[in-house]
Amino acid sequence: WTSGTAEAAEVSLRELAALAETAGSQVLDAVLQRRQTPDPATYLGKGKAHELKEIVAACGADTVIVDSDLAPSQRRGLEDVVKVKVVDRTALILDIFAQHAKSREGKAQVELAQLEYLLPRLRGWGESMSRQAGGRVAGGAGIGSRGPGETKIELDRRRIRMRMAKLRKEIEAMAPARKTMRQSRRTNKVPSVAIAGYTNAGKSSLLNVLTDADVMVQDALFATLDPTVRKAKTLEGREYTLVDTVGFVRNLPHELVEAFRSSLEEVGEADLILHVLDAAHPDPEGQVEAVKTVLADIDGASEIEQIIVLNKADLAEPETLARLRSRYPLSVVVSAKSQTGITELKEMIAEHLPTPAKEVRVLVP
Ligand code: GDP
């Protein structure tokens, strides 16, 4: 469903399809519904929902993925019509993050985000009943005000909350280790550069070019989940660290922004940000905005100088490159693939690294 322009909706749908493929699905068909507001009962509206049912049956799909967030009742309403599983954008993104989390911390963060998403969506009539009972704590309700279904849900909720509290503690306990690592890098005066940018923009590829490291490069969204720290050198041989971060995506579920705040802190502590942009994407400015929205949420990140790296120059239209160059004065045109513009980028990085602290030598006679 969209109330916006057809092009914007198509870009968003194409991205959703790419996300679904990253999650391991095969995309069979797409349906676009234009209306002012989503239908409260079936999201698409009755007529369109039945049309979707036909399409689902014709192509043999087992899941419908919707390009926005669904209220629990809308999801059920649509499921009742189409007769297959209905998943919303947030659930899909959470699923991908779950598949790609590698570190213990990353895994804990994704699980926390998934539970946060699940908690308000547990179905049951307990919801309104407990409100009637004056919001008393679970287990202490008046007789007759609680059915067995509610008890079960309350129990599930309690278990989930307990698990969430445990995960939060675990994550908190892991944070100091990373902080110590960061601090030791700082006291050693190694400047740090963070690579940020929309998912699939070419961050990992660029990291490889700049460091000769062999990071997995994948034509899929979210190949990178946990921050990777690599050593790199300027042309003059000055050492700095390069941090690759989580892929940014439009409408990143707020549960995830929260969960990944600690990983994103790396960006907030960097001396310089390389903001990588896929210049061949149909809406590069939209991607910049999406990334900036996430960065604005990270303490200190908005004050850090950003070099906009216009990547995929080998694919981009010259007019687009010219437009982006004039829009973003501190930018450089590169292709991580054909390795053009890399020297210019390295020079620009060297120019914008903080000046090395003067060495103070005390000569003891
Ligand atoms: P990330 O998600 O930002 O880390 O992006 P990746 O580095 O994994 O790259 C995503 C896809 O874009 C991969 O298929 C890369 O091979 C491709 N890619 C990256 N840089 C370039 C480039 O300069 N030109 C072209 N044509 N493709 C690129």
UniProtKB/TrEMBL annotation:
Residues 191-357 form the Hflx-type G domain. One of its GO terms (molecular function) is GTPase activity. GO terms for cellular component: cytoplasm. Transmembrane segments: none annotated. The keyword Nucleotide-binding applies. The keyword Transmembrane does not apply. Its main location: cytoplasm. Keywords: Cytoplasm, GTP-binding, Magnesium, Metal-binding, Nucleotide-binding. It is found in: Cytoplasm. GTPase that associates with the 50S ribosomal subunit and may have a role during protein synthesis or ribosome biogenesis. Monomer. Associates with the 50S ribosomal subunit. Belongs to the TRAFAC class OBG-HflX-like GTPase superfamily. HflX GTPase family. This is GTPase HflX. The lineage of its organism: Bacteria, Bacillati, Actinomycetota, Actinomycetes, Actinomycetales. The chain holds residues 88 to 452 of 497 of the full protein.
